[in-house]
Amino acid sequence: MSFSPVIIIVAVLFVVIVVAVLAFMRRTSGSSPAVGGPTPAPAAPSTRDRLFFLRFEGSDDESYVGDLIARHGGATTSAEAIREMALDLVRAAPTATHVHVGPASEAPGGPSVARSGLPGGIIAGFRVVSTRALGTVADDADLAAIVKELRAVAGFTGRDVQRAELVRANADVEANAPPLVAVRVETRPGHQQCAYCRHSFPAHDTRCPGCGARVGQ
Ligand SMILES: [Zn+2]
Fold first, then answer.
1. Among the listed residues 126, 197, 210, the one whose alpha carbon sits nearest the alpha carbon of residue 168
2. What spacing in Å lies between the alpha carbon of 214 and ligand 1's midpoint?
3. Within a domain: residue 78?
4. Ligand 1 mean position to 201 CA, how many Å?
5. If you measure from the C-alpha of residue 210 to the centroid of ligand 1, how many angstroms do you get, rounded to a whole number?
6. How far is 27 from 12, CA to CA, in rounded Å?
């Protein structure tokens, strides 16, 4: 008994088609969660809801920041008010001593309690909830990066921002929040670094306090 070549070819084709159909069905069922794939995944809430803590010390800075919070502090949904808050913080920020910026989810106590065991000083807590993801600050000690984020908030329109809160935060070494970190002085806006000894000091100084070198000559 023998099969004609045509029957063999048809049989082989049938088997190939069945295997292909089964493989296709398995793949589509396996990837069914991706059926809704075209809709983009929602941005992580933590990146839209962020907390800034900036600590200041010294009587001038403390009264300046205290006045600033008294003037523009509180909770608001007004884009204009949020812009004023952010601009105030941009102006004050260059003399901040300790800072933290991160997702609000990491600090359940909100902007009113910062983790710090430092005595004295004043801490501004600023929470901003935006409608789109905010940039990240990879290194809290980089004050220039934090000021850049605050400037970005100051540029938000009503479409970008939902609400914000600016308050004076209490320092609590046990607070359920990431600790404030010391600012690296050379990252402060308005500072320069000595070309000879790499010491960092205010831009208006004409002589390096580290090595005594004259600046700009
Ligand atoms: Zn120097």
1. 126
2. 8
3. yes
4. 9
5. 5
6. 23
* Tokens found for residue 15: 């088997």
Q: How far, in Å, from the CA of 182 to the mean position of ligand 1?
A: 22
CA–centroid distance, 207 to ligand 1, in Å, is 8
Q: How confident is the model at residue 35 (pLDDT cuts 50, 70, 90)?
A: very low
Asked whether residue 216 is assigned to any structural domain, the reply reads no
State which residues form the domain around 64. Answer: 45-192
How many domains are contained in the chain?
A: 1
User: In which residue are the tokens 């049938």 written?
Assistant: 14
Task: Report pTM.
Answer: 0.70
Comparison of pLDDT for 208 and 5, the residue scoring more: 208
Residue 144 lies in a domain: yes
Mention every residue, 6+ apart, whose C-beta is less than 8 A from residue 49: 103, 104, 105, 127, 128, 129, 130
Is 83 within the bounds of a domain?
yes
How far out from the chain centre does Cα 79 lie?
Answer: 19
- Could you tell me which of 188, 55, 54, 186 has the C-alpha nearest to residue 118? 55
CA of 191 to the centre of ligand 1 (A): 13
pLDDT in tens, 59-94: 999 999 999 999 999 999 999 999 999 999 999 998
Cα 31 from Cα 36, distance rounded (Å): 10
